[in-house]
Amino acid sequence: MTRHADPDTRRLQIAEALLSTLSERGLGGTTLADVAAAADVSVGLVQRYFRTKEELLIFGIEYVYQRATDRLHQVEVVPPVRDVVVGLMETFLPLDETRERELRVWLNFLTASLTSRRMAAIHQAATSELIDGITDALTAAQRTGELDGDLDPRTEAAAFVAFVDGLCLHHAATGDGYDATALREALVTYAERLFKRGAA
Questions:
Q1: Pfam families this protein is in (predicted)?
Q2: pLDDT in tens, 73-104
Q3: Helix (H, G, I), strand (E, B) or coil at 5
Q4: pLDDT per residue over 176-189, tens digit each?
Q5: Would you state the pLDDT for residue 5?
Q6: 126-142 burial, b for 16+ CB within 10 Å, e for fewer?
Q7: How crowded is residue 58: how many other Cβ atoms within 10 Å of its Cβ?
Q8: What is the pTM for the complete model shown?
C-alpha cells in the first residue's frame, strides 16, 4: 500500500485490518497497535483517522453493516416474494469466509452494545431498517396473495430476523452443527412454513 493513499482508501485498509484482528482476538484483546500491525501502518497513522479505539470500533461496525446492506441491494426483486425474502435473509448467513469473519465481528459488537450507547444505537438502527425492508416484502406478498392478509407483516418480519440471528449465533457456537447446508435448509423451511401457513 502506497504511503500516499487517499484518506478513504486508508480508512478502508484500516477497517479490513480491524475486522481481521477482531475476528481472531475479540474486542477486549484488540488494540490500536494490533490493528496498525495488521494494516502494516504505524499507530500514528491509525490515530490520524481514528483518535480513539471507540471511534475505530464504531467505524468498523458501520463498515460491517454497510457491506451487509450492499449485499441486500444485489438481491433481484422478482416474484415470487417468498424467494425474494429467502434471498434477502440468506445474505446474512455465514456461508463463506468473508461472512464468517463478519459474523464473529458482529457478535463482538453485540456484546459491546450492551454498555455503549453509540454502538447500541447503530445496531438498533440497522436492525430496524432490516425489519422495515422485510415488512415491506411481506406486505407485498399479502397484496399478491402469497401471504395471508390476517398476518401482521411487521411482527412476522421481526420474528424472521430474530430467527436468522439465532441461526448465526448457533453456527458461531457449534460450528459443524449448523454448517452452510443446514443454515440454508433451516432458512428455506422457515420461509416455507410462513408462506404455507399464510397462503391464500
A1: TetR_C_6 (PF13977), TetR_N (PF00440)
A2: 777 767 788 988 998 899 889 988 888 888 88
A3: coil
A4: 778 889 999 999 99
A5: 65
A6: beeebbebbbebbbbbb
A7: 19
A8: 0.81
Q: Rounded CA gap, 134 and 156, in Å?
A: 9
Q: Residue range 103-113: average pLDDT?
A: 85
CA 55, CA 117: separation in Å to the nearest integer?
A: 13
pLDDT higher than threshold 90 for residue 192: yes
**C-beta of residue 22 within 8 angstroms of C-beta of residue 66:** no
Distance between CA atoms of residues 75 and 59, nearest Å: 25
SS3 label, residue 93:
coil
Asked if 37 and 46 touch (Cβ cutoff 8 Å), the reply is no
Q: In this structure, are residues 142 and 153 in contact, taking their beta carbons and an 8 Å threshold?
A: yes
Grid cell locating 137: 416484502
Indicate the residue type of 136. D
The pLDDT tens digits of the residues spanning 128-183 come to 988 988 998 899 899 888 998 999 999 999 999 999 999 999 998 886 778 889 99
CA distance 20 to 200: 47
122 and 59 Cβ atoms separated by less than 8 Å = no
CA dist 174 and 136 (Å) reads: 33
